[in-house]
Amino acid sequence: MNIYQRINEVRKSIGYIQKDKSVSTGGGSYKAVTHDAVTGMIRDALIKQGVVIVPSVTSCIFHPKEPDAKQRLYEATYDISFVNIDDPADRIISCQSAHALDNGDKAPGKAQSYATKNAILKLFNIETGEDDESRYQQEEFDVNDYLIYIHKAENMDGLKKAYDAAIDAAKSVNDKDAQRMIISEKDKRKSEISAKSKSQEMAGQA
User: Fold this and answer.
1) Which of 17, 51, 127, 194 is most enclosed, with most CB atoms within 10 A?
2) Which one-letter DSSP state was computed for residue 133?
3) Are 135 and 112 in contact, with CB atoms under 8 Å apart?
4) 135 and 160 co-located in one domain
5) Is the pLDDT of residue 66 over 60?
6) Does the structure show a pLDDT above 80 at 182?
7) Angle at alpha carbon of residue 93, lines to 92 and 95, rounded to 5°
8) Against a cut of 0.85, is the pTM above it?
9) Which H/E stretch holds residue 136?
10) Are the C-beta atoms of 94 and 7 separated by less than 8 Å?
11) Are residues 107 and 168 in the same domain?
């Protein structure tokens, strides 16, 4: 069988997966599916059908810890390969982006776990019971760190990256107040960057 046929056979043997972890957000909690639960669910089927999963980093950046921030922001892009063990050239590659915040050295592992988990859920069409997946495997959601990264953005590209990471995190825990704060801080910083850019342009014309 080719890799598509093998994946289809794996799909036939798995179904709905229950969210198995309660994550505190400070103002409440939400349920998430862990990497271990997902891989444990499909491991036997992958072995039986001769499919191995190979994650690899294609790009990554560990942002410096901003003043007053408790954690550092890590972002990376991964190629998650689903490989036919009888013909390693026969594979499907799922490109996944992931972000993670951590105050130690766990952020890269968190991001890779999320990327791998998300690739598995999407490729094998595994139902989790909710529309939104948690992007962050962290014990507490702290909006202040995200606001700091937005405030420190030096240009529009940096602002977009900081905003995207922040709003995705707030949506994943369904924190409406945090979303409003993030949008407000983004709009404020956008105005500041635009004003600074115009001022520099005028100075250059003088």
Assistant:
1) 51
2) P
3) no
4) no
5) yes
6) yes
7) 150
8) no
9) none
10) no
11) no
Domain encompassing residue 10: 1-141
Residue 64's pLDDT is what?
A: 82
Note the helical H segments in the chain. Answer: 3-13, 35-49, 107-123, 143-151, 156-172, 176-205
pLDDT, tens digit, for every residue of 109-144? 989 998 999 999 899 888 765 544 444 444 446 688
Domain tally, the chain: 2
Cβ atoms of 136 and 100 closer than 8 Å: yes
Whether residue 136 is found in the same domain as residue 148: no
Let me know whether 24 and 89 are in one domain.
yes
pLDDT at 5: 97
Residues whose CB is less than 8 angstroms from the CB of residue 99 and which lie 6 or more positions away in sequence, other chains included = 73, 74, 75, 111, 135, 136, 165, 168, 169
Q: Is the pLDDT of residue 42 over 80?
A: yes
Q: What is the number of other CB atoms lying within 10 angstroms of the CB of residue 27? A: 11
